[in-house]
TrEMBL record, chain A:
<comment type="similarity">
    <text>Belongs to the ABC transporter superfamily.</text>
</comment>
<dbReference type="InterPro" id="IPR050334">
    <property type="entry name" value="Molybdenum_import_ModC"/>
</dbReference>
<dbReference type="InterPro" id="IPR017871">
    <property type="entry name" value="ABC_transporter-like_CS"/>
</dbReference>
<dbReference type="GO" id="GO:0016887">
    <property type="term" value="F:ATP hydrolysis activity"/>
</dbReference>
<dbReference type="Pfam" id="PF00005">
    <property type="entry name" value="ABC_tran"/>
</dbReference>
<dbReference type="GO" id="GO:0015098">
    <property type="term" value="F:molybdate ion transmembrane transporter activity"/>
</dbReference>
<dbReference type="InterPro" id="IPR011868">
    <property type="entry name" value="ModC_ABC_ATP-bd"/>
</dbReference>
<keyword id="KW-0067">ATP-binding</keyword>
<dbReference type="InterPro" id="IPR008995">
    <property type="entry name" value="Mo/tungstate-bd_C_term_dom"/>
</dbReference>
UniProtKB/TrEMBL annotation, chain B:
<keyword id="KW-1003">Cell membrane</keyword>
<dbReference type="GO" id="GO:0015098">
    <property type="term" value="F:molybdate ion transmembrane transporter activity"/>
</dbReference>
<dbReference type="InterPro" id="IPR000515">
    <property type="entry name" value="MetI-like"/>
</dbReference>
<feature type="transmembrane region" description="Helical">
    <location>
        <begin position="21"/>
        <end position="41"/>
    </location>
</feature>
<keyword id="KW-0812">Transmembrane</keyword>
<protein>
    <recommendedName>
        <fullName>Molybdenum transport system permease</fullName>
    </recommendedName>
</protein>
<feature type="domain" description="ABC transmembrane type-1">
    <location>
        <begin position="15"/>
        <end position="221"/>
    </location>
</feature>
<keyword id="KW-0472">Membrane</keyword>
<comment type="function">
    <text>Part of the binding-protein-dependent transport system for molybdenum; probably responsible for the translocation of the substrate across the membrane.</text>
</comment>
Amino acid sequence: MSSRADIEVAFKGQLGGFPLDARFAAPGHGITALFGPSGCGKTSVLRCIAGLQRLNGTCRVGGEIWQDENTFLPPHKRRVGYVFQEASLFPHMSVRSNLLYSSHGKVLPPAEGRVGFDEVIDLLGLEHLMARAPQHLSGGERQRVAIGRALLSQPRLLLMDEPLSALDRQTRDEILPFLERLHEALAIPVLYVTHDLFEVERLADELVLMRAGGVIASGPLGAIQSDTSLPLALQREAAVSLDAVVKGFDEQYGLLKLDVLGAVFLVPGRQRLEAGTRLRLRVGAGDVSIALEKPAATSILNVLPARIRSARTVDEREMILVLGLGEDGAGDGLLARITRRSWDVLGLSEGTAIHAQVKSASLASR
Amino acid sequence: MSIVQALSPEIWTAVRLTIELAALTTAILLVVGTPVAWWLARSRAWWKEAVAAIVALPLVLPPTVLGFYLLVTLGPSGPGGALAGLWGARTLAFTFEGLVIGSVVYSLPFVVQPIRNAFEAMGDRPLEVAATLRASPARAFWTVAVPLARPGFLTGAVLGFAHTVGEFGVVLMIGGNVPGETKVLSVAIYDFVETLRWREANILAGGMVVFAFAVILAMTLIEKRMRRAGE
Amino acid sequence: MLMETRVRWGVAGAVMVVCAALAGPAAAGETNVAVAANFTEAAKEIATLFSAETEHQAVLSFGSTGQLYTQITQDAPFEVFLAADDDRPAKAIAEGYGVEGSSFTYAIGKLVLWSSEADLVKDQETLKAGDFQKIAVANPETAPYGTAAVEAMKALGVYDALKNKIVQGNNIAQTYQFVETANAELGFVAKAQLAGNESGSRWEVPGDLYNPIKQDAVLLKKGEANDAARAFVAFLRSPAALAVIEKYGYGVESAN
């Protein structure tokens, strides 16, 4: 079984103008996002893991030692898949040849624990592109081929370096669903470098926060998002991502009923989804307000019982609260940004039972 | 009277010899020049530009300087003489082999430079991609670097060939004008001019002009096509 | 006061400029002389004597006889031509570039069989034995010393035997280089090239084995009206010039 320590990384050294000292562990499944501002060393960490760049340190992946004091495996001996910011397809090869480069042009027969060729083609919708030259693909198509190519190298770890940042918004929205499907379908852990919070909220299971060459926190996404000692929760656009399961669909009003830990959300849904479908829900801190009594008459759909877990003052005007959903406050966490005046007027304190009014929650299919 | 009849067997010997020399020189240069170009493009050694400068020397040095040093190097007191001693000769000068060596040195920058440029233009990325797809450095070189540098190889080969055909000063200085062995086209033309046989000189010189023009034009067109295909 | 000084200097300057302008053409005429490469050192020495004696200047250009001749036919500004043979000066006159009756033999080249190895060259027996791999000869088609060398080998009856050992220098200077670097064990060079050089072994080829290598000079039409050019041609026959020519290993025509 995979454990938290399936991927262990620690690098230390001088990188161009700044010192890098990055150490973190990530689980052997799901998407771990490396998040931080541009130039904080995220990409360098990724390159070190792939062996493309050499700094002192250790790197262990699924029980294999890729680097330690005595070992430095060259990049081609590391079972890694790397998706670069630009697709970087080989321009002198067709899409098919690009996809099959790692297997020397051969389609390997399906086997246990192996990423199947047809599966990848299907997952990324590459069927109609196979004979084309990379020059004749759109930006989004190229990046899909690059992802497929990396997957077909049968990696134990997939590294993605801002794979969407070179694409326009529309293309990015076209690729995101593919990435979400990958996550569902394949058991390969992913380290995903990004400086875009939106991608983190939508894709990540785990989060490694980086700043100026170092790791400031790492852990499950929700825990990091709602840790008010970290800068993320204090940002104006702070939000939590909740994993939800479809429970039902209200045909009359076009509303989805979604189960999260400790609450049921009603969210406008464009189409009917099978009960049991897993979705990701984003709830912004600014979209949550607090009421002591359950309001009798309100247009807000989701008024959910919760308890205040913790509170922190942001500045002289505002506070950020972490709420636990459910009467007992033991469910999923939410963030709520309120004024200090409200905090005082309502006489709130940690542990207070309240009603969280969620003005909006956005859906990301999973 | 056709041109073929107008030219004596002596001239055809020179033409054949020139083509053989240029072809062999080009082949050797591709084999020798590619690793040099690769190293120059990839190495981070601080002294690599010094090596690059040495490779480029023939571009700047007068052929007479090169010819003189080659004469000494190929001769009995140089390594060339030692090599020639293996089969009982005393010098590599005045031989086809000596000419090949001279041409390789002389045309080296014309082959190395375009290939180096092509390797550099390619950047690190394709090789990094290949490495992360489990390709060994050797496989990455043959399946990625070489195909991507194809325009550079083509330019290098064409320039190397053309430049060897056109080479004069070095051949004059180490060749000894031996028919069928070292008397190449450019030397033959020179002799015709010197002996006032201007009709023959004109035919050959005109031929060279047409050849050079065709080479440059073809190269430009091919490069253009390749670039378009690469986009 | 200041004004006065300036005026005085101004006048002095003007006078000097005028003097220079008047004296220039009268005292120091100039002539462009094309010189065959083998005569380079001797020509420089003669030019120095010439300017000391006559106040004229000879500006020397060196090259192979063939090249220089081609340049003359292409309107090069040469006024005197010191060739390495007697063909080109004759041709110059025949084709109208040279002044009729102005050509004469200023030097006679001497052929030497030379090797940079000490005991290799003894006499004609060295050629007959043929105990060597390469023999350097100037291109007989273009270089007079080459023609002479072939004549000498034919006269000795060794040409056919040596034919395949011959390597050609494009000119006599290159032939010398082949021998000096020992790429060829021996070769026919000009005696003038060995002036001041005692190294190796040598045999001066007897004059009766080859036609004399006459180096002719000719006054070119471009120089016909130039005092300096005519003076230089005359100076070549002066005892001082002849002494220099002989010093460099050339023969001179005895009866003149």
